[in-house]
């Protein structure tokens, strides 16, 4: 497993778990729930923020937020 912030452009992964913090509830409310597939759609020129596709919509996350999400990369 790797952190979502480490996933490269165009790669897809399945959310497996969160680091326990106050942020994980906010992330779950935005559709980032365990078992959901995410894809890195865009990365800002300086690397922060990143744009992912999750639950059918685009979501922009700071790298510090993406650091709390553990994912398992899937082959496409």
TrEMBL record:
Q: Which InterPro entries match?
A: Fe-transptr_FeoA-like, FeoA, FeoA_core_dom, Transcriptional_repressor_C
- Write down the superkingdom of origin: Bacteria
Record's signal peptide: none
List UniProt keywords, sorted A-Z: Iron
Which Pfam families does this one have? FeoA (PF04023)
Q: Can you give the residue ranges of the Ferrous iron transporter FeoA-like domain?
A: 2-73
What the entry lists under PANTHER family is as follows: FE(2+) TRANSPORT PROTEIN A
Q: What is this protein called?
A: FeoA family protein
Species this protein is from: Chitinophaga caseinilytica
């Amino acid at each position: 497993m790797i952190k979502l912030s480490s996933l490269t452009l165009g790669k897809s992964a399945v959310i497996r778990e969160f680091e326990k913090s106050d942020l994980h509830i906010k992330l779950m409310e935005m559709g980032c729930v365990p078992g959901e597939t995410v894809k890195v759609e865009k990365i800002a020129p300086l690397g922060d923020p990143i744009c992912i596709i999750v639950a059918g919509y685009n979501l922009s996350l700071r790298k510090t937020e993406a650091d709390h999400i553990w994912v398992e990369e899937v082959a496409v």
